[in-house]
Amino acid sequence: MLELIPQGLHFDFIGKAKLGIAVALAVILIGLVSIVTHGGINLGIDFSGGILLQLRLSQDAELATVREVLGGLNLGNSVVQHFGDTREVLIRVSQTAESEENDIGSRVQQALSERLSDPNIELRRVEIVGPQVSTDLRRQALFALFYAILGIVIYISGRFEAKWFAALALAVALFAVTYAITRWLPGVSPMILIIIALLATVVFCLFLQLRYAMAAIVALFHDVLITVGFFSLFNKPFDLPIIAALLTIVGYSLNDTIIIFDRIRENTHGQRREEFASIVNASINQTLSRTVLTSGTTLIVVLALFFLGGEVIHNFAFALLVGIIVGTYSTIFIAAPLLVFWNASATAQRLSLVRPSRLSRSQRTQQA
Amino acid sequence: MVVIIACAILAIPPSEKIHLGLDLQGGLHLVLEVQVEKAVERSLDRMADLLRQDLRARGLNVTAVEPDGAQGIRMVFGKPPDMAVVQEVAQQYVPEGVSQQSPEVVTAAFPETELRQIRTSAVEQALEKIRNRIDAFGVSEPNISRQGANRIVVQLPGLDDPQRAIDLIGRTAQLEFKLVQSQAGSPDAKPPRGTELLYEKTKDPKTGQLVQGTAYLVQRRPLLTGDMLSDARAIPDQMNFGQYYVLMRLNSRGKRIFARVTQENVGRALAIVLDDTIFSAPVIQGPIPGGEAQITGTFTPEEARDLAIVLREGALPAPVEIIENRTVGPSLGSDSITQGVRSILLGGALVVLFMIVYYRLSGVIADVALGLNLLIIMGILALPNLGASLTLPGIAGIILTVGMAVDANVLIFERIREELRLGKSVGASVDAGFQKAFVTILDANVTTLIAALVLFQFGSGPVKGFAVTLAIGIAASMFTAIFVSRTIFETVLSLRRVTKLSI
To answer: What are chain B's domains?
Structure first.
């Protein structure tokens, strides 16, 4: 029997959890710093509006020449880069005179073929996104992220703690909050709205004692933040398909989390007496091969997509790649330990009221 | 079994049965916004004209009738009018809201319901006209639909010349015949009341680009409009080989007006104006009773044909603005397919190999389940009534499914191994493995399914294609991993006594 993870492995994940969380925070911080120094998230044309042209020349494209030709066309701000190979160029224009936008592709094509005396320049892709559309897409994308996380929180709370009622209350409360904000502060940007809503979710989870949901959602924040941070670090444009990738990550990263949570639940039923921390730790160890294998097979195919899928899908594959790795990490080092920490502090509070004599023991748990 | 056979029948051959999205087969995706406020403005203008005529016919001394902002009409009289008569006339157009602002000024406000009606019908008419234009242009499988309050989505697969289609769709095609007052002296001077400054556009013979030509002062009010046409056709020019002109035939009302206008204005120039641009301004040589007119402008055959289409199908009730345009060339689409298929093959091969190496014979069973899973995805995508199409992110969704589909089997097999380690028999371990892993698999997949469903809300386009394949793939993987592989396990175990499981 081939085994990736040796039987009876007993690694003290919970003991290393603080280090793990520190590493995660550091990576998130690097990402945030990168976003700030880049002056915000690098939005692609789906979300910022603008023009994207992809052309293929018959010989290698000199970017300087292409820039020169574009300069002659008076297009405004444009960015030129190779795309895939050196014969192919990608041109992104942020602003133009509105009236002449729609034939911009053929105009650039014509100007380039005259300048380079290359009659076979192929216009492979034109994307023009107006400001109305990009604003809509931005809002839709943020709400999609929000609804996905909300749906997942409700499902986990209901499923893991049989707290369908609390989960429903959470949903109602959140809708009330978002409705109230949009009602009384109509000008508020969706970004701020979503952040408020997500913070409210965490607060409600704390308040309603939805431990599993809380741990899962914090892990999800972690995954999304790090993926977005990586996009900023590598200066990749954030587009509609990336939102699809993020939502997939949110859904998929939970697979591992659920496997461990399921095992924790199973183990707590069996051995009521044992310390919660060691149950969680044992659960992580028991399911480790599963966690690694399931993420591993998915990682294999995403790598295939990343290397062979072509330029158009490259950033999408990159997001999935980062997200799957980070999601597996967060399952082990964020979600599971959070359960332990919360449990420890809750027990400490309860015990300090009832039986102060056992306080020292639960404190030990916390440090273990 | 039935499901699998059905899917196999549906999906073979895949190249014919599966509908490809625009990003894979190449094509044009446009989102147009109908400028509904222009439609409101236009119908207010029209109504003001009619109202003026009616008021004059009743003998009222009316000096001006004009739109009042975007919701009403303002009437100015030379002397305080008889309000009863004004009420009576105005009521035909504006049912209520007629009020006297001062002795000489009366306003009539349109109710919001009426304005909304104008906006809605403008969008509906625009949709209809665009559909007719595209039909006349000849595109196979166009998809034209309304989105939201005043947007129209046009999807045209596989075009040779997308720019031509964009021009055809986006053109308002408001045709007007206007009398020329004079050639404009200085273009900066404010045109006198009742006239406007329009430019003639001529084609540069070298570049083929339209350039701005002579400026004319023309009468604001058109003598004839495009809705008086009965036909328009592209005709080859006998004098200039290879060039075309567009011949227009007027309907009976247009014919009458045209005959009268040409008779009364011999020697003056009549401008043929399309979307506020003068195409030509020929001098009227004599009365034209036959009701035929032509637009010449050194057109190529395609340009003349497209112009004839828009004139024949009629003007859009309001201008449209192209707010989103995504065009993918056919070569990029086919490259994407090749690369996508290659990724699926390599990724799939690696996963298949890994499963066999790691789980041996059981891995083979998982691989069979994986193959069936792919077949089911193809089958469902090929369902004719679903209207699903395969996009590039959709291919990515299939690739992801390949990686995720074996997850369920991994969970089951790990569980079986665990049970075996506890010393249970092969049969009992397999049973327990499937049973205990089931809940976990369900929970784990539901969350991804929730994410896929949320992605569905992105109305159309590639992202929706991703959501479709991901959702189908996850559902299919639960089915194949749990039912199909379990059936295979149980069949094998029942056929012969297995004491040691190859897992």
So the answer is: 37-114 (3.30.1360), 175-300 (3.30.1360.200), 329-495 (1.20.1640.10)
Summarize the confidence of residues A144-149 as an average pLDDT.
82
Smallest Cα distance from A367 to chain B, Å: 31
Residues of chain B with C-beta less than 8 angstroms from the C-beta of A308: 339, 342-343, 346
Burial class (CB in 10 A: 0-12, 13-18, 19+), A9: exposed
Put simply, the answer to whether B329 touches A122 (Cβ < 8 Å) is: yes
Whole-model pTM over 0.90: no
pLDDT at B35 over 90: yes
How high is the pLDDT of residue A277? 87
* Interacting residues of B144 by C-beta distance below 8 A, sequence separation 6+: B127, B130, B131, B134, B152, B153, B154, B155
Relative to beta strand B210-219, strand B244-250 is: unpaired
**Contact flag B451-A130 (C-beta cutoff 8 Å):** no
B chain contacts of residue A128, beta-carbon cutoff 8 Å: 322, 324-326
Between A1, A130, A244, which is nearest B463 by CB?
Answer: A244
Task: Sketch out chain A's domains with CATH numbers.
Answer: 17-42+133-367 (1.20.1640.10), 50-129 (3.30.70.3400)
Q: Which residue of chain A is at minimal alpha-carbon distance from B398?
A: A301
ipTM of the complex: 0.85
> Nearest-CA neighbor of A125 among A320, A311, A268, A343?
A311
Q: Could you tell me if residue B215 is left (phi over 0), alpha (psi between -120 and 50 degrees) or otherwise beta?
A: beta
